[in-house]
Amino acid sequence: MLKELLQEQQPIVYKALETACLENEVSSAYLFAGPYGTPKREAAILLAESIFCEKEGLACEECNTCRRVRENVYSDLIILDGKEEPISKDMIDGIQEKFSKTALEKNGQRVYIILNAENASISAQNSMLKFLEEPGAGITAILTADNESRLLPTILSRCTILPFVPMKHEGYMKMAENAGIPKEDAYLLSHVAKNLDDINELMIEEEDGTRTPSSAYESALGMFQQYLDPRQRNDLLVDYEISWKSKERDPKKAKKENMVIQNAFFDLMMMYGHDVILHGSQGPQWYLRALAEAKGSPKIYGKLIMIASEEKDRVNKYNDLNLLMDQTFCRLEELDHESRI
Predict the structure, then answer these.
(1) pTM (two decimals)
(2) Contact criterion met (CB below 8 Å) for 176 and 189
(3) Hey, CA dihedral for 189, 260, 73, 151, is it positive or negative?
(4) Which site from 111, 258, 270, 317 is most exposed, i.e. has the minimal number of CB atoms within 10 Å?
């Protein structure tokens, strides 16, 4: 149940939403802001259910209305996801046009959810701002963002902002282990997968209950292991094109898989930098050997973390992914020459 998940992981957010629903003081616009992996989407769905559900307070999560909201087949609900494709001005204008008409359901309320709203174009954000300023009666906006700094300040000022805090790393490890991932592999995966959907996408469950890496996660691990080997590091740019890139023929599917590969690679690189600096001692044997053989000052590994963080943010802004990786490998090569790591 979404209520139990939210109450356990984000008790402050849970209490704020529960109070607003019980006292009929739901804001016209919310922004759920916090790191990737926090249950912002789940909270958005729960709030939408609660607005439409006949039960007072938070949604019952059991009635037909709640089910239709969860399955995204409720007539007066619109959900956009900036992670699936960049949010355009036309998409926002489409919401406004639909909600300018009378509600289709007897409840009379209308809700639109924009997941990963920071991936909206500037023109889309300007349209969003106008809608937030004059929403109309019975319309609630629920935005989520991993990085709210990429939203216009005027959008932030129009929203009730609820901050989501990340789970401790041990929580992500436990989640991976509970999903059947061996402890050594769970350590690496817990730095990449921040929810059960991620785990299922990256580690495919076989018929016998065991799990094997998806092609995307396998590529990310391969790139990471190649980087950890100084003898193979300089070949990463060529090998990315030959061995590690998505083999999907459909351009959209290929781009989506390449985003998974690159995000996972950068997460693993940040993990490595932190573990070198903090003398980490968890993970599979090949990773522990790499940590033991790591050379260079903490300052160099701090730069490595910064590069990985910046490039991951660029991936999520829908840049040219091929050019992005070319530039990334050039930056890593420069760092290698600077530090001799």
Answers:
(1) 0.71
(2) yes
(3) positive
(4) 317
Q: Give the alpha-carbon dihedral of 309, 205, 236, 301, to 10 degrees.
A: 30
pLDDT of 340: 64
**CB-CB neighbours of 95 under 10 Å:** 19
pLDDT at 287: 97
Q: 131 vs 228, 250, 327, 338, CA distance in Å?
A: 49, 35, 38, 50
Question: Three-state SS for 71?
Answer: coil
Cα separation, 221 vs 108, whole angstroms: 50
Q: Which residues of 304-336 are buried (b: 16+ CB within 10 A; e: fewer)?
A: bbebbeebbebbbeeeebeebbeebbebbeebb
Residue ranges of E strands in the chain? 29-33, 77-81, 110-115, 139-145, 160-163, 203-205, 211-213
Structure tokens at 258: 């390449």
- Tens-place pLDDT, residues 20-51: 999 999 999 999 999 888 999 999 999 999 99
Structure tokens that stand for 265 in this block: 């690679």
**DSSP 8-state assignment for residue 280:** -
Domain boundaries, given as residue ranges, for the chain: 2-163, 214-339
Q: Could you tell me which residues come within 8 angstroms of residue 102 by beta carbon, excluding any fewer than 6 positions away?
A: none
Angle at 13 between CA 66 and CA 92, to 5 degrees: 60
Nearest alpha carbon to residue 145 among 40, 234, 295: 40
Q: How far apart are CA 89 and CA 13, in angstroms?
A: 30
CATH topology of domain 2-163: Rossmann fold (3.40.50)
Strand partners, 141: 29, 112
Ranges of the chain whose pLDDT falls below 70: 318-319, 340-341
